[in-house]
Amino acid sequence: MNSNHAKLMPSPEWFAHIQDEVLPQAIAGVCLGPDLLELGPGWGAATEWLRTRVARLVTVEHEQESVTRLAAKYAGSNVSVVFGDAAALEYPDASFDTVATFTMLHHVPTRAQQDRVLAEAFRVLRSGGVFLGSDSLPSDGLHRFHEGDTYNPVEPAAFLTRLQTVGFAAITLHVAHNLIFTARKER
Fold first, then answer.
1. For residue range 39-65, what is the model confidence (pLDDT) as tens digits?
2. Which run of H or E residues covers position 119?
3. Long-range CB pairs of 50-56, under 8 A, 24+ apart, other chains included
4. Are the beta carbons of 105 and 83 closer than 8 angstroms?
5. Whole-angstrom Cα distance, residue 173 to residue 171?
6. Residue 179 DSSP class
7. In 97-106, which positions are buried (b, 16+ CB within 10 angstroms) versus exposed (e)?
């Protein structure tokens, strides 16, 4: 994580942006079910909001510092914080009702690894489950913001096909200042 992220991610402004703008739009009309997996929670801006809407929330994060911080914050709650790789999840097939990721996919270094994340999300979803989330759109400003950090933005038009290729259906993409998506694993 570069210094720009180190300043932005823990800020009240970032938490408010995720919780007040991104999450309500991403979750609109979606029944989350009792068991939700969040991929790449970072500082937990979405985690805090999501945990009040499900019985069990599991987060998988690959940065140990974030795992340690979130595990301490959510000790004794309905949140389990796990160190792991979103492209190689250690959960059986059909373990979760919902899988979510918010502004994380552009930090996955390659398209092939991103596709593995999508495939893993599909695999661990129960039949009828929903994969949802958001990500940043490509821009020169974000490219500069990510200097010295991984920046591999998702192209919305290609993302639709990538989700379909994995097996998702009933896909909705909303493209404005960011990308918000939902995709269903049909029964």
1. 999 999 999 999 999 999 999 999 999
2. helix 111-124
3. 50/23, 50/100, 51/77, 51/78, 51/79, 53/27, 54/78, 54/98, 56/80
4. no
5. 7
6. E
7. bbbbbbbbbb
pLDDT confidence of residue 52: 96
Tokens representing residue 10 in the block: 């823990």
- Contact 153/178 with Cβ under 8 angstroms? no
Strands lying side by side in the sheet with 96-102: 79-83, 56-61, 35-39, 96-102, 125-136, 178-184, 169-175
Domains held by the chain: number: 1
**Phi, psi at residue 53, to the nearest 5°?**
-115, 0
> What's the whole-model pTM score?
0.94
| Domain residue limits at 108 | 3-184
- Could you tell me which of 69, 70, 131, 141 has the C-alpha nearest to residue 105? 131
The token pair at 2 is 């570069």
Strands (E), 96-143: 96-102, 125-136
Q: Do residues 129 and 185 touch, judged by C-beta distance below 8 A?
A: yes
First to last CA, the chain: 38
Q: What is the CATH number of the domain that holds 157?
A: 3.40.50.150
